[in-house]
């Protein structure tokens, strides 16, 4: 497959990130590596979306600090960014709402409707707005040249940056003004772009807990968007999927990252990181 015929993907990870760990970043890297190896996808960007303070989780640190920690964790990455939209809302947002927000935002930025997993691949997602200006990625030497993933993500990020506003108490962070008029300033080659939810097998398993998720939300998350799962601690993802009628129904929309080499994905766990920090604190208190 050529670059233009592959599905371009933005990986979105929701969670408390309380705190963010190296394992979270490793999860992004492993997912991108695996998707690229399939030959069907090009990952052009990753988004970390920390949960709102009103989520109600015990011990949840203020979003101001969690956002700062996340930003520090990705400061050396050229493709993962932290998005504070979820934290800046009036109340907690469902994962479904966060996915829909980013889908609608990207639609407005690019001027086209983003593809869902069930949308025919012939449907252009980042296409050509109606203005007839010269395409941004047009190559004078080769009219069939397609944009690289890095250029595409960079251009989208640049356009988002033009409509971003800084919140006073977190000067390093920006959020997108969803009321901004983006117009049709950009023009792209026709490619297919999807937003996929990135998660660990623990979140996948939570879909099987009765009453925890609305069936309608699960239908949208798995059926319309699709998910990429990076298993932790040797979890049996096949068993988890078969345990849920919704997951079984949309099994083809679930991509499980497989790796011949065993990686300690337990380090993704923020809970274990907090335990270790408390252990160290108690240890130091015993010394002094």
From TrEMBL:
SUPFAM superfamilies: Nucleotidylyl transferase. It catalyses: nicotinate beta-D-ribonucleotide + ATP + H(+) = deamido-NAD(+) + diphosphate; beta-nicotinamide D-ribonucleotide + ATP + H(+) = diphosphate + NAD(+). It is found in: Cell projection, Axon; Cytoplasmic vesicle membrane; Golgi apparatus membrane. It is a lipid-anchor. The keyword Hydrolase does not apply. GO terms for molecular function: ATP binding; nicotinamide-nucleotide adenylyltransferase activity; nicotinate-nucleotide adenylyltransferase activity. InterPro entries: Cyt_trans-like, Euk_NMN_adenylyltrnsfrase, NMNAT_euk, Rossmann-like_a/b/a_fold. It is an enzyme of class 2 (transferase). Pfam families: CTP_transf_like. Its main location: other. Keywords: ATP-binding, Cell projection, Cytoplasm, Cytoplasmic vesicle, Golgi apparatus, Lipoprotein, Membrane, NAD, Nucleotide-binding, Nucleotidyltransferase, Pyridine nucleotide biosynthesis, Transferase. Belongs to the eukaryotic NMN adenylyltransferase family. Monomer. This is Nicotinamide/nicotinic acid mononucleotide adenylyltransferase 2.
